[in-house]
Amino acid sequence: MxxxxxxxxxxxxxxxxxxxxxxxxxGAATTSIPTNFDSSVMPGNEAxxxxxxxxxxxxxxVTMSTLPGIPAGxxxxxxxxxxxxxxxRVIGTASDPLGAICCDQQLAWDRFGNLWMTYLINTNGDVLxxxxxxxxxxxxxxxxxxxxxxxxxxxxAGPNSVWVSFTASPGSQIEAFGAPVTGLGQFGSFSxxxxxxxxxxxxxxGDTSVGPGGQVMLTxxxxxxxxxxxxxxxAVDPDGLGPAGFTATLVAHSHVGGFDFIPAQxxxxxxxxxxxAWDRSGGPHNGRxxxxxxxxxxxxxxxxxxxLQHSDDNGATWSxxxxxxxxxxxxxxxxxxxxxxxATGNLALSWYDTRNDLGTGGSGDTNGVPNDDFQIWATYSxxxxxxxxxxxxxxxxxxxxxxxxxxxxxxxxTHAAFxxxxxxxxxxxxxxxxxxxxDGTLHQFDLYTAKIAIR
Length: 455
Ligand SMILES: [Ca+2]
Ligand SMILES: [Ca+2]
Ligand SMILES: [Ca+2]
Known about the structure:
It contains one helix and 33 strands. By secondary structure, it is mostly beta strands. It folds into two domains: 1-32; 34-453, Neuraminidase, CATH 2.120.10. The strands form eight sheets. Strands 1, 30, 31, 32 and 33 form a five-stranded antiparallel β-sheet that branches. Strands 10, 11, 12, 13 and 14 form a five-stranded antiparallel β-sheet that branches. It binds calcium ion (3 copies). Residues 40, 42-46, 437, 439, 444-446 line the site of one calcium ion.
């Protein structure tokens, strides 16, 4: 009896060792699903996320989420131990000095430890900038563009500057403004907004990136409504805070429009969600800019895919678009995020993905309906985008936007951060795979993330 127990125990030890070996492998080769963190643990919907990691202390991670259905405020979640424990609070309520925050928050953490945020306020659509110098535990408003009604501002930090671009009404004019940064809490005034001139100077749903020399690249799509397709532009200011201005370049045409409805986003729809990353690592691909966006082939089939291009000449010319998702389905991949580890030059991407929902049951299908349940998937490249690791599943569970019952689905975008060999994708999740969502399973979303070692 004793001997048999010992044999059984030994078998358990062997099994545990195998699991541990797989978990270790997962760090490098991502062959199994990583641990998921429920960063928000909040009743109601958290959708449309931001995430940033502190380059001066990569154990500091901050996530933020819009709170659709609540008049004003953002969910802010902070860990200082790489996800083991989180604090949660709501900022941007009606009485907050930051203003009554509507939405469209985005984050950038610079090499000095400054955590920058851009966002919109409810009252007049002002585009604002706030700064945290204490790891996201408090934010102070530092700039307010008081005369513009803005949309989807994005923010990026470079070696010695921080830049915001946004869409200004009327005419969906793309504008950008920047400030010099010299240390923790040490920065100059933001420039007045600089408009991207015609041709190609208007659009929306874009991103901002700063290159190794302080040059600035924006991306956005023209055609901001409807399902019928859109052109994707980049615009570059070659000297950043210097006197030169932006010049726009047409890069690609997508069959995704401005509000393109797919089964997984039946209420909010999707757009191209073009996003940028710029290699400032000093490595073999230093200066390479990457552009990710969403294609639909053929148009109006809901078979959307994640496309990637790169440029080695400040956006003047681009490599042919390659499809990043490697599934063999006609299902939807959408809302891509892209992040580059400036410590290594490695590139990682994550996105919402319905590949495992064939409507035939199983772990990827909650309801017998095809193509409406999503997971988060990702890949990475360690050779400048020449080759990619096989796609791997990040979310442990499967989620459904209709079940969130907000009319906002997961919102318009998702984000990821990649610092010091660790990739942190963020996403809205109602699978309740962690057992911590206060609303239970397949109800309102919580804001999830995962920690993935990639070197
Ligand atoms: Ca697809
Ligand atoms: Ca389904
Ligand atoms: Ca929630």
